[in-house]
Design a protein that fits this description.
- The chain is mainly alpha-helical.
- It has one domain (about 5-220).
- The protein has seven helices and no strands.
- Helix 1 (about 10-40) runs antiparallel to helix 3 (about 65-95) and helix 5 packs antiparallel against helix 7.
- It is elongated.
């Protein structure tokens, strides 16, 4: 860890080496997580398809690269989740030298809370929101059509819901952390906190319902 007292005597290149090292290590952890998740890509693909199978449907492949792209996507997302504690630790090492001692005590609890809330939001999206959305959009609203859901459209839809809700749950904690560090103004944080949280969760579904049922309408018109 860098001693703040040493920073004024460091050259520009020495200053740049610090963030470069943290970014490089984060990329290495992400790559290792991707490799580990890639070993279990079959299980991950089955896991991401499970909510669709609950309504008795399977994915349709419309392009030779669809299956490979899905394998890469789920492996990358799974790897990022596995590597997230190590990546957050690199972020902590990057910002720690610029914090006062009283501020440092907030970092670890807030980073732990961020990871827990992200995973909780992602789990909520996967186990409750995604199955409910599929039932409403495909079974209820789409009962007059023949559903044809492609790999690409389903991957985009499901990952937006899962990751979007995970990110939305972390926003209040991040704003509170910025407020405690006096980076965000308390009036701005308190006023916009509900709006920010709700907007974050709603934004993940932008254009996805229309994408999911667009093939149904085309197939019916044919």
């Amino acid at each position: 860890m860098i001693d703040p007292a040493e920073l004024p005597g460091m050259s520009l290149m020495e200053h740049l080496k610090v963030p470069f090292k943290r970014i490089l290590l984060s990329a290495v952890y992400l790559g290792l997580g991707f490799i580990v998740a890639g070993i279990f890509y079959t299980q991950l693909v089955a896991f991401i398809q499970a909510p669709l199978k609950t309504i008795g449907m399977s994915l349709v492949m419309t392009h030779p690269m669809d299956a490979l792209n899905l394998d890469i996507q789920v492996s990358l997302i799974g790897g990022a989740i596995l590597a997230s504690p190590f990546i957050f630790y690199q972020v902590w090492l990057l910002i720690a030298p610029g914090l006062y001692q009283k501020e440092k005590r907030f970092v670890v609890p807030f980073m732990a809370a961020t990871v827990v809330l992200f995973l909780s939001g992602a789990a909520f999206g996967y186990y409750w929101v995604l199955p409910g959305a599929l039932k409403i959009l495909v079974v209820d609203f789409g009962h007059n059509f023949t559903p044809v859901i492609t790999i690409e459209e389903y991957a985009n839809f499901s990952l937006r819901v899962i990751l979007g809700l995970g990110i939305a749950l972390t926003i209040p904690v991040l704003l509170l952390f910025l407020y405690l560090l006096r980076i965000a103004h308390p009036r701005l944080t308190g006023k916009n906190l509900p709006i920010t949280a709700i907007s974050g969760s709603c934004a993940v579904s932008t254009n996805t319902p229309s994408q999911l049922i667009s093939n149904d309408e085309v197939n019916d018109n044919d």
